[in-house]
Amino acid sequence: MKIEPIVPIKADRETADLYKKIKDIFNIHSVPLAFQYIAPFRNYFKYLVSKIEESVLRDDFISLSKETKLEVESLFKENITLPLVLRKWREKNRDKSLSIIRQGRRILDINTKLVFVFIALRESVKSWSLSGKITSISTHEKTRFKFRAVKDQTRDFIYKEVIDEVVKLDAKGKITERDNKLLEYMSLSQGLFQKWQKEEEYLFFRLTLEKLFLLKMNLLFNFIHSPINVVIPLVREYPHYDELLYLLLDHFPTFSMQKLLFSLYLT
């Protein structure tokens, strides 16, 4: 992968303003890594943020997102048994468990919205690609879309993002006692979650949630319009834009769903 994400501390004024808008839209403290990978494609990033703002702040989406979050949490509790080690930890640390659950539900709310966004982007690009409507792309450009292997960035895209969102430093720049316990729980959860990912139960549950989100998206009209014939003219002047298409079609929706599933371990 040759795209260099723009980390917030290195963002210019315009990118920083777009990052702030993303944080305000989703009510989050840190900028999700996916948007840092899209940011180098300035024209498309500006377009995308405007479409996200139009869509995510709509009353029908806010209502549907809340409804979906509750369904996801209910499906998890009905079908998946939290590992015994985590249940024992919660029993032993009852006072800290309530705080973790509150944080987990907030993270679940954020990740539910992000899954909708990245699945919508994937479906928008994919549907136009498959229907042969790529009228504004040359034959030469079509041959460029040979997606390169991406190194395993699970920790950055999933665990680090969740940690950055929930762990705060005190006035002295140190992690609070509450957050030390939270990090302890999350470290324990991370290893167990990785084991779960290798089991059939995880695959089936992930597919169940994927179907749920696709079904719910049918209730949203014109949600984040970003077909490939809109994307290409906005990104073709930048290097490695073929990699961006891979991220939109595969990487981002996959990791956003995994992050959602991991956040269920905190609820």
Summarize the model shown.
The protein is an all-alpha fold and 267 residues long. It has helices at 13-26, 33-38, 42-56, 59-79, 84-92, 94-130, 139-142, 154-166, 177-196, 200-217, 228-235, 241-264.
Keywords:
267 residues; mainly alpha
Textual characterization of the structure:
Helix 4 crosses helix 6 and helix 6 packs antiparallel against helix 12. The radius of gyration is 19 Å and the shape is globular. Mean pLDDT is 84; it is low at 130-152. With 267 residues, it is an all-alpha fold. It has helices at residues 13-26, 33-38, 42-56, 59-79, 84-92, 94-130, 139-142, 154-166, 177-196, 200-217, 228-235, 241-264. It has one domain (59-264).
Straight-line N-to-C gap: 34 Å
Q: Helix coverage percent of residues?
A: over 70%
Shape: globular
Low-confidence stretches: 130-152
The biggest beta sheet reads: none
Q: Strand content of the residues, in percent?
A: under 5%
Judged by helices, strands and strand pairing, the structural class is mainly alpha
Mean pLDDT: 84
- The helix/strand order is HHHHHHHHHHHH
Number of domains: 1
Overall radius of gyration: 19 Å
How many strand segments? Answer: 0
- How many DSSP H or I helices? 12
